[in-house]
Write a structure and sequence with these properties.
Layout: E1 2-4, H1 5-8, H2 19-30, E2 33-38, E3 46-56, E4 64-69, E5 74-79, E6 89-93, E7 98-99, E8 102-103, E9 107-109, E10 112-114, E11 117-118, H3 121-124, H4 146-149, E12 155-159, H5 173-184, E13 207-208, E14 214-223, H6 232-240, H7 250-260, E15 264-268, E16 276-281, E17 303-307, E18 310-314, E19 318-319, E20 332-339, H8 341-351, H9 356-361, H10 370-383, E21 390-391, E22 395-398, E23 406-410, H11 411-418, H12 424-433, E24 437-441, E25 444-448, H13 461-472, H14 493-508, E26 512-513, E27 519-520, E28 536-537, E29 548-549, H15 554-564, E30 571-581, E31 591-601, H16 609-629, E32 635-639, E33 645-655, E34 658-666, H17 668-673, E35 680-686, H18 687-697, E36 712-721, H19 727-735, E37 741-750, E38 759-768, H20 777-793, E39 797-798
Parallel strand pairs: 13-16, 26-30
Antiparallel strand pairs: 1-12, 2-12, 3-4, 3-6, 4-5, 6-11, 7-8, 9-10, 14-20, 14-21, 14-22, 15-20, 16-17, 17-18, 18-19, 23-25, 24-25, 27-29, 28-29, 30-31, 31-35, 32-33, 33-34, 34-35, 36-38, 36-39, 37-38
């Protein structure tokens, strides 16, 4: 948000205070300042001059030589402009001025000296395009800078919006000046909401239906407007705050927004179909033209302003094009309203339209300004070129006119929360300066909150603590160490386990940890079928992609993979997080589950199934190594079907009879849904089950003394169908109960012309270890023969 210091001085004499002190007070007691700049300071050396003479350039057909004066000094200027004549008053950029990144020099053009450059509106930044030098009015004072001429001599403060998101009263010049006056203890000179206006009798037929969809809504008829340009004061102030001047009626609405923070809107009376106004909700697919030349199809329950049966505005966000004020407008209807912030936020989310009015409404305005702002608008209309307007009695309603907020507290509470001894007189003085009404009895206080801060802002005693603390300055509160006993912290096994898991994945195997929102879309909730029915919808509805609490960590990881799939060859991610599950429709709270999810994005083409299978096996090995790292070696992998995984690449890990983890290649239908171009390998571990197993078994010693004899190994290659799983033969070997067998795993899988179409060669490696004697050739042959026999007896073909 931008604030004009010149405008602020209208309401409180900031010029009496050193500017550095003003900035310091804003930063320490009100909000953060992002930037402080002199408005168009580069135009200080652009002055007004009058052309005294004009001649053809002696050496160039398209140039002219002129003599111009600022009233005391003459300048020789060479120009290519064709629209200047003797007697014209024009802006002259003196040498040293920088325009569009170029410095104006005292130079020679074709042998004739030129002491500057005449400026167009484009070069002054007042128009996007211009056809020649700007010709100023004949009564323009000579020798002054264009900054002074156009009322641009001003300092602009850029306020960090996030630091005042809870303070709707500060989103305007008067409110900010009021706050500054109280903090700096200087007077507040004027109060624009006290403007005096006499209404014409009658309402010109306008009526407003009462509605629960708005806190307050008023309209009034205004006749005899004359559309033209705005006066320099209003035009320059809008421009300094980043708003384009349109005409002397629309500019008044924008001026009020910046001055008082109360959005208003003007309708062309002749374009309205009815004299009746209603605040209502939209129907699905309803549409009408807006001021930004769009006609979006609206979802259900968007807040609208209806004129008769015709929608004329998105309430609090944007007006309709068909009822807009134009050059031919003579009679207008002024709207002044305060809508519920929840409804305006809903409109912003659903339409993706965010305007200056909507930004203020979504903070939560109070309705007390609705009627007074109409009087101020009339005053500005008269001042801005409409001296003959007739304003009729406003019509409407205000549901919250009698609302008050009273907070009861005591001095002891305030001192305790502040950590500073402060007197009752000091507390009373600070709160009264800030606009609060204070009634004190002994050490008890009853505080009535001012209307401009009673909506959502100051509602509880702790809010008063903040008001006092920021006013006296947080730096004045002494820092003290917390007074608390030093005790041995209670052991948290789950946190210990999580730290060890993170250490392994991040430091040992080089995976990257990610954090995702705990929200999900309805499509995300369908990824794991087992949890589809337990999805929990958020009551305060978020955007569609955040409408539910997540039931799976997979969608978040997949979306992260999508964002990075074209940036990195290797994408290996993990996340530790919660999922939320609501069983049934009772009043019981939803259940939280804690998971570790892992994702590895394939480096190969989706059709390279052999390489993808190797990557799948590598991630299985990584998960297995994690269990070894946690001192849990007695796990068992088995094939388990999961609908979100490829049918032939879906495993589950069991420990002590409990399923702890799953691993699989994401089904292609979900890859397509999330637009992931590479194959996705996923795994997840139930941390609540794992911590129980870790506590029971992870501290046991599984140490086996190393053998004094060398290890041996055997390899057997079997020819299988391409779709055959590999684990049955490994499981078969386990049943043989070979005493020397330490482990069996798939070493390689080969496919090619040599093994035939639709076939694959699977090489199994058997690790052998003897603890009482060295392996002999006879024992190797005996073991090899038994493995070959087992394979043949069970229908396998040796290769």
């Amino acid at each position: 948000m931008k604030l004009s210091v010149d405008w602020l001085n209208d309401f409180t004499p900031l010029s009496q205070i050193p500017f550095e002190k003003v900035l310091e007070k804003i930063n320490t007691s009100i909000c953060e300042i992002d930037d402080v700049e002199e408005f168009k300071s580069h135009l200080s050396s652009v002055i007004t001059v009058k052309i005294k003479s004009l001649e053809k350039h002696p050496n160039a057909e398209k140039l002219q030589t002129t003599i111009a004066t600022d009233g005391t000094k003459d300048y020789q200027i060479v120009t290519a402009a064709t629209n200047v004549n003797v007697g014209d008053i024009v802006p002259l950029a003196l040498p040293g001025t920088k325009l569009d990144g170029k410095e104006i020099l005292d130079s020679e053009l074709r042998g004739v000296r030129s002491q500057g450059m005449y400026c167009s509106e484009k070069e002054l930044g007042t128009a996007i395009e211009s056809s020649g030098v700007l010709i100023l009015p004949k009564d323009t004072t000579l020798g002054i800078s264009v900054r002074k001429l156009f009322l641009w001599e001003d300092t602009i403060l850029t306020i960090d919006n996030k630091s005042i998101t809870h303070r709707p009263d500060l989103w305007n010049h008067f409110g900010f000046a009021r706050e500054l006056a109280s903090q700096l203890q200087i007077p507040l000179n004027s109060f624009p909401l006290q403007s005096d206006t006499n209404w014409e009798s009658g309402n010109q037929g306008l009526t407003v239906e009462k509605s629960e969809h708005a806190h307050a809504y008023y309209v009034c008829a205004i006749q005899n407007v004359n559309i033209s340009g705005s006066i320099p004061k209003i035009k320059s102030r809008l421009e300094k705050c980043g708003i384009r001047s349109i005409n002397n009626v629309v500019d008044v609405s924008n001026y009020l927004l910046l001055e008082l923070g109360q959005p208003t809107h003007f309708f062309d009376r002749s374009k309205l179909q009815s004299s009746n106004f209603t605040v209502s909700k939209s129907k699905e697919g309803e549409s009408f033209a807006l001021l930004d030349d769009t006609s979006p199809k609206l979802p259900e329950n968007i807040l609208l302003i209806q004129n008769g049966n015709t929608p004329v505005a998105l309430a609090g966000v944007m007006g309709g094009k068909d009822s807009a004020v134009t050059e031919s407008t003579k009679d207008i209807v002024m709207e002044s309203a305060v809508f519920k912030r929840e409804d305006v936020r809903f409109t912003i989310r659903k339409t993706n339209i965010r305007t200056e009015s909507a930004v203020r409404y979504e903070k939560g305005l109070d309705s007390y300004t609705c009627l007074p702002v109409i009087k101020r608008a009339v005053q500005l209309l008269i001042e801005n070129g409409n001296p003959n307007v007739k304003v009729f009695e406003p019509q409407g309603f205000n549901h919250t006119v009698s609302k008050t907020v009273t907070i009861d507290t005591n001095l002891s509470f305030l001192r305790h929360k502040l950590g500073k001894k402060i007197s009752l007189q000091e507390v009373t003085d600070i709160l009264q300066r800030l606009g609060f009404t204070v009634t004190a009895k002994d050490e008890s206080l009853s505080v009535v909150v001012p209307k401009y801060r009673q909506n959502y802002d100051v509602t509880i005693p702790e809010d008063l603590v903040e008001e006092i603390g920021r006013t006296i300055g947080y730096a004045s509160i002494r820092t003290e160490a917390l007074s608390m006993a030093v005790e041995t912290p209670i052991r948290n096994p789950l946190r210990e386990l999580e730290r060890r898991v993170k250490q392994f994945l991040a430091l040992e195997v080089g995976f990257n940890e990610v954090y995702n929102y705990s929200f999900a879309s309805s499509a995300d909730a369908k990824l794991e079928v087992a949890y589809t029915e337990s999805s929990l919808k958020i009551a305060n509805e978020m955007p569609e992609e955040h409408a539910l609490l997540r039931t799976s960590l997979y969608p978040g990881l997949i979306k992260q993979a999508k964002l990075n799939q074209d940036r990195f060859e290797s994408v290996n991610l993990f996340e530790l997080g919660r999922t939320y599950h609501k069983e049934g429709k009772g009043s019981d709270l939803a259940e939280e589950k804690r998971w570790l999810s892992i994702l590895s994005l394939s480096k190969h083409k989706p059709t390279d199934l052999v390489s993808i299978e190797q990557e799948f096996l590598r991630l299985r090995e990584t998960v297995s190594e994690l269990f070894f790292y946690l001192n849990l070696p007695k796990f068992l992998w088995s094939k388990q079907n999961r609908s979100h995984f490829h049918p032939n690449a879906s495993l589950a890990l069991h420990y002590d009879g409990k399923e702890v983890a799953e691993l699989g290649i994401l089904h292609t239908r979900f890859s397509d849904l999330y637009d992931v171009k590479r194959r996705v390998i996923l795994a997840k571990i139930n941390m609540e089950v794992l911590v129980e197993i870790w506590e029971n078994h992870g501290r046991n010693s599984h140490f086996i003394p190393p053998s004094h004899f060398p290890q041996g190994q055997l390899d057997i290659s079997l020819l299988m169908n391409e779709s055959d799983p590999t684990e049955p033969f490994a499981n078969l070997v386990e049943t043989l109960q070979i005493p020397e067998l330490e482990s069996v795993y798939v070493q390689t899988i080969f496919q090619g012309e040599s093994v035939g179409e639709g076939k694959k060669s699977v090489t199994y490696r058997f690790r052998l270890m003897s603890y009482d004697k060295t392996f002999t050739q006879e024992r190797f042959k005996e073991l090899s023969d038994s493995l070959v026999t087992a394979a043949k007896d069970n229908g396998y073909t040796l290769r």
